[in-house]
Amino acid sequence: MKRIALLLFCFALLLFNLACSPVKEKPKAKPAIPVKTAQAVQKNVPVQIKGIGTIEAFSTVAIKAQVTGQISRIQVAEGSDVREGQLLVSIDPEPFLATLRQAEATLAKSQAQARFATDQARRYDGLVKEGIVTHDQYDQLRANAESLSAAVAADRAAVANAKIQLGYCSIRSPISGRTGTIALHAGNLVKANDLTILTVNQISPINVTFNLPEKRLAELKQAMAGGQLKVEAMIPQNPGAAETGSISFLDNAVNPATGTIKLKGLFANKARKLWPGQFADLVLTLASRQNAVVVPASAVQNGQQGEYVYVVTKDQKAELRQVVTAPATEGETVIEKGVASGETVVIDGQLRLTPGAVVTSEIPQVGGKQK
């Protein structure tokens, strides 16, 4: 009986040990990490430089009086378009008309005296040959005639000057453009070359001035040697189509204080989207990079070893690759080394990845666009 009890006890103990021993389970596979991908493509990519520029009038003229007088009338409104030669301001012409009449009367008097003196000298020329008058008398009359002829020439110049002064009473626009604020109105007394009455800006065509780093100067000069460079200007608050122009000016020296070189772009501005004083985003196209490998800019990450991308292999694993890139343009980056055309790169979700991790693409893309 004791023996049977001992056997039962041993059997119960064995069952207890089996129940308490841990069950070894097979390790579970890590789930695939969802990412977004794009395919590296090969295409021609423009080499561009981006910057910010200031829009300036092609030419600016400060309208001032050239004579002293009273403004009789302003012939244009503020902010109006004017043509070259159009009348802008009228100054009271009466004082200048009186001066002109006086000069003309003086000229007529001098002309009459000169004619009499010339005729008198001609008559005495025969008398001196006959010995009736002395040579001294004849020389005196001839000198008087010549003096009066010179006075006639001076009076003619005075008449011409009076006409010029009278012409200055009508101030005309030297350029076609748009008027600004009128500072002096009718009734104000103006002095010659003193205060600005109004300003005319030529806005079609128009200039955009900007600066580029001096490290791009050699590249810029090389591109300019090949022909005219295209530049595009966009107003941040006006999302419409960009204005296209060309580089018209490259400064003759680098600014040593800022390390930049000044340029100007010339734009036709027929639609008048560009306005003096505004800031514009500029894109200068230097050349075109042929058959470049391109990926979305978000695919390129920065690490301790430099720039890298995650490439998705055929077995859906993430492979980290160091890359050499060129400047990005329009949301895309040119890969000079490290990725071949047709390979798939990760563009979103890189922070969750490690080399060799299994991935799954949520939104397969090609060339940065959804299928």
From TrEMBL:
Q: What are the alphabetically sorted keywords of the record?
A: Cell inner membrane, Cell membrane, Membrane, Signal, Transport
- Residue limits of the Multidrug resistance protein MdtA-like barrel-sandwich hybrid domain? 60-200
Instruction: Tell me the Pfam families matching this sequence.
Output: Beta-barrel_RND, BSH_RND, HH_MFP_RND, RND-MFP_C
Protein name (record): Membrane fusion protein, multidrug efflux system
Give every Multidrug resistance protein MdtA-like beta-barrel domain span.
205-285
Which subcellular locations apply to this protein?
Cell membrane
A single MF term (Gene Ontology):
efflux transmembrane transporter activity
Q: What is its main location?
A: membrane
Q: What's the family? A: Belongs to the membrane fusion protein (MFP) (TC 8.A.1) family.
Question: Which chain positions lie within coiled-coil regions?
Answer: none
Name all Multidrug resistance protein MdtA-like alpha-helical hairpin domain ranges.
99-168
Q: Where is the Multidrug resistance protein MdtA-like C-terminal permuted SH3 domain?
A: 291-349
Task: Indicate the secretion signal residues.
Answer: 1-21
Keyword Cell membrane included in the entry's annotation = yes
**Assigned GO CC terms:** cell envelope; efflux pump complex
Domain of life of the organism encoding this protein = Bacteria
